[in-house]
What we know:
By secondary structure, the chain is of the alpha/beta class.
Amino acid sequence: MTRLFIQDVTLRDGMHAIRHRITPERVGTIVAALDRAGVDAIEIAHGDGLAGGSVNYGPGSNSDWEWIEVAAANIKNARLTTLLLPGVGTIEELKRAYALGVRSVRVATHCTEADVSAQHISTAREIGMDVSGFLMMSHMAEPAQLAEQAKKMESYGAHCVYVTDSGGRLTMNGVRDHVRAYRDVLDAGTEIGIHAHENLSLSVANSVVAVENGVVRVDASLAGHGAGAGNCPIEAFIAVADIMGMEHGCDIFALQDAADDIVRPLQDRPVRVDRETLTLGYARVYSSCLRHAESASARYDIDVRSILMEAGRRKLVGGQEDMIVDIALDLSGLEVSSG
């Protein structure tokens, strides 16, 4: 079996879990702990990628540049990575991240919109970065359709393309079918990645199935720190990987210690499967919608689950979090004032 490439997303997807608020000092502590634990890559940025801090997505406590600088100062062995959404982050911001030490980027689009990634992927390749395509909300496209989008990202220069289960909706069969569809159309040298969420309690199982079907890059985070019910918990996945004889470079005890002693205490809302986060997966809703839906629920006295179910019915995707207030108003019988 090919050695796995373990990418930690505690300091990017995990930003959603703490409303993108973390001190640079704490970032440095987490990066150093992950580096010692042997992960292959550490991703850092606002939860919605470079330049994601905004009224729509939520402002960060610090700039991406402050976080990246301290991360670069505390990393010795792992690859420093970031994420960019075309239309949110720009080519200039990508180049600035590279100048600060970032050597890998995931260019993220909705699962049917790979076309918008062409310029960003090709530019990242030109400046010497490791590049992955990141097809979000992968459950919304059938395997063959998603594979066509992955092929586009490969043609733009992506070294790897991810099955990105942003809604935590895919089952093991769904992961298997999507990964196999990728393998059928991608070049043998193009790697495949899996980004799983825990909303249906399947993130570890889905990641294992993905590896069994040819995935090399696996996303995970300390204590599952991430949007919704969180990402695949890295310490749990590595434990299973050890039991199953998968090759990787991680120290499970070091990951456990970092998860329980450093990351879990940061969570103002427990990152776990509960009635709200389970509903995310059940309703097929983008995981980062959780905190927005909870805020709207408190403001308009509407059950979070009702908001999420309606968001799923309307097929909301990443970038449409602002529509959650409209949903809450509709459910409460109010109308948006024309003034």
